[in-house]
Amino acid sequence: MKSVSYWKRLLAFSVASVLLVIPFRFLTVNAVVKSMSEPDVHVDADAKLQQTDGIYDGVLMKMTDLSYSNLDAYVGDSLLTLEDLAAVKQGPPGIYEQVDKVNQIDWHLPYTQANRFFFSDLAGWKILDVDDLEASAGFYAVAFQRGHTVVIAYRGTDNVMDLVADAGIYLSVPNMIEQLQPAEQFFKQVCKEANVPSGDVILTGHSMGGWLAQKVYLDDQNVYPNWKIAGVTVFNSIGTGFRPKLQEASVVKDYHYDGDVFSHYGSSLGVEIDIPNPTPDESVYDRHQMYDFYGYFYPGSPSSTGADHSKAPI
């Protein structure tokens, strides 16, 4: 039985496919064709070697995925609190439903072991803040903190309201992107609210959230001298309107799942990392979702691979 959130997101992306990708593709040729002077920044990479400011990119992928769950009630809590709740299928349903789904696709473990595996490299992180403007502007973001490092995860397209912002991104019409202002405000708010005077910020997000993360980096990287944006790592980001730059290649990474039509229009600000797709018969909707990234960052299970992701670089 598919969850209600699954069908809501399926509806949103079905509408996006018809209303955005097909007609707008022909209106944004100038936004999706690179100039001859732009560098080739597509790479293939070993997931185990990928880190952002010392944080395993698989951890950032999970945090991006967690941003699709409503975490307002858990501000200040450790992520291990969410692990305990998910172990008995309590707390935000999106978390234990996602653990279940990924486990069925990739790990094939008893649920309690899969849940433990999911949270194995998230120890020490807490939920610092949440900004929930989903009802009024379609915007949602979560900030996680461990020591002097803060990760801000921007939620992507999750409802029909977000399609207006998607259209604004595809058409390069800033006035249609209502989420950009709260995204920048949340970044500034988190820097002020963190209980340490200085540190590093990593921006992450999926789909439209990946675009927001890159845009916030462009606009606000020098706002707070004591808080450096140490990296931007995004997943299947809508990249339209960005131009890759060599000086950004060490800061911005965009993981693209092979066959995802939404993220392959346009270009990202930095490096685009191509993720092979082992299931090419997937639907257009499924290829855009976060659960497909787990097989790349966390292949197999501890028992089948011998891997101990609790010791993965975090």
Which descriptors would you attach to this protein?
AB_hydrolase_fold; two-stranded antiparallel sheet; 13 helices; Mbeg1-like; Lipase (Class 3); alpha/beta; 314 residues; disordered C terminus; 8-stranded mixed sheet; globular; Rossmann fold
Describe the structure.
This protein is an alpha/beta fold and 314 residues long. The protein has helices at residues 4-27, 29-32, 57-66, 79-87, 93-107, 111-118, 134-137, 162-171, 180-193, 208-220, 284-287, 294-297, 302-305, and strands at 42-43, 51-52, 55-56, 126-133, 139-146, 149-154, 199-206, 227-235, 252-257, 271-275. The chain contains 13 helices and ten strands. The longest helix has 24 residues, at 4-27. The strands form two sheets. It has an eight-stranded mixed beta sheet with strand order 1-10-9-8-7-6-5-4, sandwiched between helices. Strand 5 and strand 6 form a beta hairpin. Helix 5 crosses helix 6. InterPro entries: AB_hydrolase_fold (IPR029058), Mbeg1-like (IPR024499). This is Lipase (Class 3). It holds the Pfam family Mbeg1-like.
Number of domains: 1
* Distinct helical segment count: 13
Query: What is the global morphology?
Result: globular
The biggest beta sheet, please? 8 strands, mixed
Pfam families: Mbeg1-like
Protein name: Lipase (Class 3)
InterPro entries: AB_hydrolase_fold, Mbeg1-like
Organism: Alicyclobacillus hesperidum
